[in-house]
Amino acid sequence: MSKTNGAVAKESKVKNNQPFLTDVKQLRVQARENIEKGALTKAYQGDVKQTIDILQTVLATEIVCVLRYTMNAVAASGLSSQSVKEEFDEHAKEEEEHMRLVAERINQLGGKPNFNPEGLASRSASQYADAANLVDMIKENLIAERIACDHYQELIRFFGDKDPATRVMMEGILMNEEEHADDMHDLLVAHQGTPTL
User: Fold this and answer.
1) Which residues, in sequence order, are CB contacts of 69 under 8 Å at separation 6+?
2) What is the mean pLDDT of each run of 10 residues along the chain (197 residues)?
3) Sign of dihedral through CA atoms 186, 188, 192, 193?
């Protein structure tokens, strides 16, 4: 064996003797000692209170979106409204799924999801806007989706590696919100021509 190969083997052995993971026995001990903390472990690097506060605003945003899409699905009228009503209904259901995911995450972090309607509009990033006609409904939903996309991208960057579970949840929601924005844009083009936003 050459000196070079021997040095590589020795270096590899030194690296392998320094585990980068906590010993399994130690993990078991820690889990038993901190059982009252639920899902939060020592590895969690985020600020739990701040994360819960942020997620309360996301929850409010999703609730407002459910309400807006549901109202639009009920109130949409006109010759070409049926397919738009169906799109609004589908989006309302998907926003409700987001709402539930966020509420579950708040609960996992030890918080209590705030479903109180009082102050809902002030906690939400998007607005609940009454629209006079089908095109205005589509515009308001597109605006709300764009707000959610911008806000959620910022949150994904904020959570980063400090809270990968919340980040991954937000990434999934963001993908769906981008699809919603694209759907609303397509509807706007179909009903109005090139959008003027």
Assistant:
1) 88, 89, 91, 92, 95, 141
2) 48 48 62 57 74 97 96 87 92 98 96 96 90 92 95 96 94 97 93 67
3) negative
